[in-house]
Amino acid sequence: MSSDVIPPSDGLDVLSTTQTWKEAGRSVALATVVETWGSAPRPAGSHLVIDADGNFEGSVSGGCVEGAVVAEAIDVIETGKAAMLEFGVADETAWRVGLSCGGRIRVYVEPVN
Known about the structure:
3 helices, MoCofactor_Util/Proc, disordered N terminus, alpha+beta, XdhC_CoxI, 113 residues, Xanthine and CO dehydrogenase maturation factor, XdhC/CoxF family, five-stranded antiparallel sheet
């Protein structure tokens, strides 16, 4: 593991938060890193839980793409349809979301029922 890589957040904490938020009646989505290339700072399996108000816990990129993932997750919650997101330097959103360091990341966002 390179010194640039941020260790994954404790997935159990994120999954516990997901359960707690659902039990409280909040609509939530779960984002999961499914694939990375290059200098992506979070490994596959990292999670981010998001509620319909945009609150979130966890991390899928150490801050590079969380804002874009949260925005997409709100749409996923509203539509009930999962989405596969990809960010990277070859993507037109790379500079906007901060992956100018050379990595690429694929994140699956799904509603939690």
